[in-house]
Amino acid sequence: MVDEGCIHGRFQPFHNEHLEYAQAALERCYFLWIGLADHDALESDQSAASSTPLNYRERQFMITRTLVSEGIAPERFSFIPFPLHTPDLLPNFLDPQATCFVTINDERNRQDCDLVRKSGYQVEVLYERPKGISASDIRNLLIAGDDLWQQLVPSSAASYLEEIELAERLRELQEK
């Protein structure tokens, strides 16, 4: 068990596999930093808008609400920006002694893992397996009005996404 750990992701939106990721990391650390990454600098503005419809505050609130509803005390976690594509900035937000917990679902995750490791962080792979849930699939289900998306996210996240009318926001972004 380490004092401080970190997970990171875009969490657009926070889904069931993200919850599993957070819970696995919380089993290995006393305090968990949740790094909120932004879109790749290479994405176009329109592509970024449709793939990252939730802002930092919305993701922070959605994840907090989910973790607390799962019985995780709010004093066990907090949030930081996670500048994955400018890793030299990471020490501004995360103590270099923290362990970064990662999952490997594809080659991109391996590359991200290497970036974090090259930044001087201890990296622990929690598990390696094919991705089962895709946030882009969830966003597409929301756009289509298919309620299947609700089975792919924790119920507290689903209710929040309905409250902020994410489906309508995504449809508007798609029309632009």
Q: How would the blueprint of this fold be written?
A:
Layout: E1 2-9, H1 16-26, E2 29-36, H2 45-51, H3 56-69, E3 77-81, E4 99-104, H4 107-118, E5 122-128, H5 135-144, H6 155-163, H7 166-175
Helix pairs in contact: 3-6, 5-7
What does the overall shape look like? globular
Number of strands: 5
Count of DSSP H/I helices? 7
Oligomer: single chain
Number of domains: 1
Q: What Rg is obtained from the alpha carbons, in whole angstroms?
A: 16 Å
**What string, H for helix and E for strand, traces the elements in order?**
EHEHHEEHEHHH
Secondary-structure-derived class: alpha/beta
Sheet with the most strands?
5 strands, parallel
Describe this entry's structure for a reader:
The protein is of the alpha/beta class and 176 residues long. The protein has one domain (2-175): Rossmann fold (3-Layer(aba) Sandwich). Helix content is 41%, strand content 19%. The protein contains 7 helices and 5 strands. It has helices spanning 16-26, 45-51, 56-69, 107-118, 135-144, 155-163, 166-175; strands spanning 2-9, 29-36, 77-81, 99-104, 122-128. Strands 3-2-1-4-5 form a 5-stranded parallel β-sheet, with helices on both faces. Helix 1 (16-26) links the parallel strand 1 (2-9) and strand 2 (29-36). Helix 3 (56-69) packs antiparallel against helix 6 and helix 5 (135-144) crosses helix 7.
Name some characteristics of this structure:
5-stranded parallel β-sheet, alpha/beta, Rossmann fold, 7 helices, 176 residues
Brief rundown of the structure:
This protein is α/β, with parallel strands linked by helices. It has seven helices and five strands. Helix 1 links the parallel strand 1 (2-9) and strand 2 (29-36).
